[in-house]
Amino acid sequence: MKLKWLFAGLIIFSVTGLAAFKTIERRVVKKNLFRTKPVGDVYVVVDKSDYELQVFDAEGWYATYPVVFGSKDLSDKLMEGDRRTPEGSFRIIYKKPHHKWHKMLMLDFPTQESWSKFKERKAKGLIPRNAKIGGGIAIHGTWPNDNLVVDDYTNWTNGCVSVKNEDLDELDELLPVGSRVIIKR
Predict the structure, then answer these.
(1) In this structure, which CATH number among 3.10.580.10, 3.90.1150.10, 2.40.440.10, 2.40.128.600 belongs to the domain 22-184?
(2) How far apart are CA 118 and CA 164, in angstroms?
């Protein structure tokens, strides 16, 4: 009798719940194994289409880190509140600890290029006349012990670039204030 109920329960579970399970790959950091430290000036290229942040130095590629963003719509930020991650060339302007997301490497968004795109889009009627450009874009961590959001490509930020906290610790060491950050799709 118990076996019959167990079998019935498994059928119900498999029909209703098993389909919700998925395999999550552990997205890991890839590094140049021939160098222990970057050489010369270091800069970052964030590729939104590949969900990667790549670190380059004077000798070329140094490391790649998995990242996530704001909206699932990976197009360029249009205005404040759209949760999109801006595209363009930025600089890290300061670093600070954060009570929710570990640390923040603050970017100089909006730049002059950002303002030009914003004004052009407003003039073309692509965004409302009363829209604001926004700000506060950073590279930051996740909630404590929440690497799953990066591993399963969950875009959860308000437009920032999010990395695993241990990866952010490495990036904090590698990237001085003033480092260039290029964000592209």
Answers:
(1) 2.40.440.10
(2) 31
